[in-house]
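Appendix B, record 7
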Amino acid sequence: MLVIFFKEMAGYEVLHGESLAQRRKDLFGKTPRNITAEMIWNVEAPDENRPRAFMSVRQAYEIAIESEEKAYNFFDKALAHLTEKETRELFEELRDEEAEHKKMLVQKLMAIPQTEGPDLTDEDVDEPSEF
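Structure tokens (predicted):
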């Protein structure tokens, strides 16, 4: 089930990326970018040590929800620094999309039984024995 979750989330991100690329092209044509990937690294990514081996599907959804909140906050705070109308509108849409993504994830999380496992910590798993 966890593999299905990650495939589904990756599919959403591909669609989101394609949509953003088209939107940028529509707004700015071939104007060179002023922002590099390094400048926005980790905007929607989970905090570094949150994902881990052996987490449950519920935990994966909880981390995804946190990531959507993080992205929402990024776009919301960035709006205070934007003056160009088209860019502001784009960031407002992106912020609002993150809120919609969070709602979708919360709904899916609510459908998962509380007992969905494995819900182990890294300490619960023995290190593999050496041969």
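Remarks on this record: The chain is about 55% helix and 0% strand. The two ends are 31 Å apart (CA to CA).
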